[in-house]
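Why should sequence recovery work at all? Because a backbone constrains its sequence more than one might expect. Tight turns favour small or flexible residues, buried strands favour hydrophobic ones, and helices have their own preferences. The token representation captures these environments compactly. In the example below, the structure is given first.
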């Protein structure tokens, strides 16, 4: 059934790809991927992929432009090697926050990246928790948009927490937070946040909802520098939240995010492994990393045999 299914990965997140391969029971294809002395990337696929249904597991995480370029080159190599179908499994989709023209003379880079991947020869995209759902429409090929919410919900249910409220950092993430609150059968609160400029700084104006005496779970898709999330955690503390946790699908954790997290009132930060943790970041005792490898393995096998992915949304 899976004789024509091939798994491939670049350098962006090999540990995740290896875990997906173990769950799927399919080895990763052998490829050479390196840079020449002039900083140009080179890819050679050593396995036969003619007529194969190939899945490239490659998040476009740091170094973002290298990861993206490696993905494009792998797609081109597979196309020229006569692969039957090229599926790009991009757990973390970079440039997703540049999804609209909200200032004069700025690009919509999320759309540009979608065009690059499509023109390179991709036939399908599999991704996790896009920053904005409309990015699916930037592609003229099928997009399977998976969610981390079921994984987080199952984990929080196992923690047996009581008197929970899920908190969205801003109104834009309210739908995402409401989905988790529905699964946990708890209340919802929303941060009234205002952002200006392009420096990752935001001003929190208020918390809408009751958080006093409750266990608050801040839920967002991305934690980058962490400043906005930690600012909201302090406001939740001021509003009487008894415990504060945070859950974010994509743990970018750039700049001094770890230092800020360790000094914050957040007891634990739950993230997935869409982006690999450096050795230094992995030492932070506040970080708990959940794996999405099994979800991706199931999605890959279901797509290969043309079955519905609805089981992954339960």
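From this structural description, the recovered sequence reads:
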């Amino acid at each position: 059934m899976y004789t024509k299914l091939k798994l491939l990965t670049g350098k962006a997140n090999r540990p995740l790809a290896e875990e997906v391969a173990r769950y799927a029971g399919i080895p990763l294809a052998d490829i050479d991927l390196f840079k020449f002395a002039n900083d140009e990337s080179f890819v050679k696929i050593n396995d036969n992929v003619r007529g194969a249904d190939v899945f490239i597991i490659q998040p476009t995480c740091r170094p973002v432009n290298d990861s993206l370029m490696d993905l494009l080159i792998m797609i081109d190599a597979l196309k020229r090697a006569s692969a039957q179908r090229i599926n790009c499994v991009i757990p973390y989709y970079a440039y997703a926050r540049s999804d609209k023209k909200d200032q004069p003379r700025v690009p919509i880079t999320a759309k540009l990246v979608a065009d690059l991947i499509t023109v390179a020869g991709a036939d399908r995209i599999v991704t996790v928790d896009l920053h904005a759902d409309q990015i699916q429409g930037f592609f003229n090929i099928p997009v399977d948009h998976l969610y981390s919410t079921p994984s987080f919900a199952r984990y929080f249910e196992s923690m047996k927490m009581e008197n929970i409220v899920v908190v969205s950092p801003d109104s834009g993430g309210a739908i995402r937070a409401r989905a988790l609150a529905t699964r946990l059968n708890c209340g919802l609160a929303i941060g009234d946040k205002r952002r200006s400029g392009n420096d990752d700084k935001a001003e929190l104006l208020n918390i809408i909802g009751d958080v006093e005496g409750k266990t608050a779970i801040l839920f967002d898709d991305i934690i980058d520098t962490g400043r906005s999330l930690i600012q909201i955690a302090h406001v939740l503390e001021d509003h009487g939240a008894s415990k504060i946790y945070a859950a974010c699908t994509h743990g970018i954790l750039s700049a001094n995010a770890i230092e800020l997290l360790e000094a914050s009132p957040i007891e634990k930060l739950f993230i997935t492994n869409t982006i690999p943790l450096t050795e230094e970041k992995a030492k932070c005792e506040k970080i708990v990393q959940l794996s999405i490898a099994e979800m991706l393995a199931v999605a890959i096998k279901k797509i290969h045999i043309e079955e519905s992915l609805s089981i992954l949304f339960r």
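A few observations help interpret the result. The chain has a mean pLDDT of 95.
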